[in-house]
Amino acid sequence: MAGRTERAERGTDTRQAMLETAERLFAVHGVHAVSTRKISEESGQGNNAAVTYHFGGKPDLIRAIVRTHADRIEEIRSRLVTEAAGSEDIRTWISCLVRPFTEHLEDLGSPTWYARFRIQVTSDPALREISQEEALASPSLRLLIAHLTHTLPGPPSDIRAERLNMASHLIVNMCVERERALAENAVTRQLTWNDLATRLTDAVVGLWQAPSSN
Asked: Rounded to whole angstroms, how far apart are CA atoms 13 and 45?
């Protein structure tokens, strides 16, 4: 029994090491520039096929990284949406859209790689679906969008969907900028992740409330 437990723990540690290594390498070099062999080597695995053994392939490895972060972000968003229940303030609900991402990055400490990894995945047509799968599976995100629609019914549904997509790109790209600056010990435009979240909320509220030309 003890032997099986130890092997299971070693397997968990190995998987975690590969997840963290892959996220960092993908973030810095791009998904297609990094081989599974390189990930195995850099995570200290003697077996060059370790990624294939534990995950099945690069898309499954990427899905595992996305899911790990999505679970943590879901917890934060669920809490914020629960706290905002009953609010008719559009800014409150936009904050629920912005802050799960920034709070998660702050909780991870520095340096982080997730924002840069996320932009690599969402900008690749072949991989974008993996990220979208996790978003569609999020109960708190669906509830948040329903509250946003209730609080500010217009513009039409197709424009709302487009603006949510714009907001998502804005949030991720601004987080990439700050994450990279922190990793490089460069000067950041915002002193804290909370400062960035506040400014992003201001911007997205404006985006959401802007009149539609058609």
From this structure: 11
- Torsional sign, CA 184, 185, 188, 191: positive
CA distance 52 to 58: 8
Which pLDDT score is estimated for 8? 40
- To 5 degrees, how large is the angle CA 108–CA 111–CA 114? 60
Q: What integer is the mean pLDDT of 120-147?
A: 86
- For 157-167, b where at least 16 C-beta lie within 10 A, e where not — what string? eeebeebbeeb
Q: Report residue 9's pLDDT band, with 50, 70 and 90 as the boundaries.
A: very low
Q: Rounded to an integer, what distance in angstroms lies between the CA atom of residue 63 and that of residue 67?
A: 6
- Show the tokens assigned to 168: 């998502």
Q: Which residue from 136, 68, 137, 81 is spatially nearest to 107, judged by alpha carbons?
A: 68
Q: Side chain identity at 152, as an amino acid letter?
A: L
Surface-to-core class of residue 126, CB atoms within 10 Å of its CB (0-12 exposed, 13-18 middle, 19+ buried):
exposed
Residue 1 binned pLDDT confidence (cut-offs 50, 70, 90): low
Q: pTM of this prediction?
A: 0.88
pLDDT tens by residue, 169-186: 999 999 999 999 999 999
Nearest to 210 by CA among 151, 154, 161: 154
Degrees (nearest 5) of the Cα angle 80, 197, 114?
Answer: 90
